[in-house]
Amino acid sequence: MPPLPRPAPGFTLVEVAIVLGIAAVLATLAWPGIGSLIERRRLDGAASALAGDLQFSRSEAIARNEPVYLTALSNGDGDACWLVHTGPNADCSCESGCTGETSLLRKTRLPAADGVRLHAPARSLQFDPKLGTCTPTGTFELVGRSGHAVHQIVNVMGRVRTCSPHARVAGHAAC
Q: Using CA atoms, how far apart are residues 98 and 74, in angstroms rounded to an integer?
């Protein structure tokens, strides 16, 4: 008696359809959590970049022995940016950077599509070259679409402290 033919290895169409259906249900359940995670990571990334640029501004003022400014700007489209520069801030914009006697050191953009808004305490902060101090002082607020926020607080000594209201963004102390 000849041996019986073995079935071909693999999956049937019904098995594949069931697995895809289960994967679709799981992805639908996970999507809101993924959106929230992405928003918090964008917020955390913007906060880290701002803290780094504030510290950079202070150290550059001391190293260059001239005032360095961090200027926060926004345009009508909801985009925002901050610029680190020397010289008068009247010659700076998010689109073209700085012109004239102003020397642009760094530029960071916050596109409105990312969902992170910037509220600045003043248009421009000046870091003193002799003492590293900052005038004026204040709190930069970075706020996501859901209302989660990270604050960068700059004191008169030019030091930066990061916090999140009610510790809603992981990795940041409560304000």
A: 14
Predicted structure pTM score? 0.79
Domains in the chain (CATH in brackets) are: 13-82+109-167 (3.55.40.10)
Residuewise pLDDT in 10s, the chain (175 residues): 677 777 777 888 899 999 999 999 988 877 777 778 888 899 999 999 999 999 999 999 999 999 999 999 987 677 899 999 998 777 788 888 888 888 999 999 999 888 899 999 888 999 999 999 999 999 999 999 989 999 999 999 999 999 999 888 888 889 8
Q: How far apart are CA 114 and CA 63, in angstroms?
A: 34
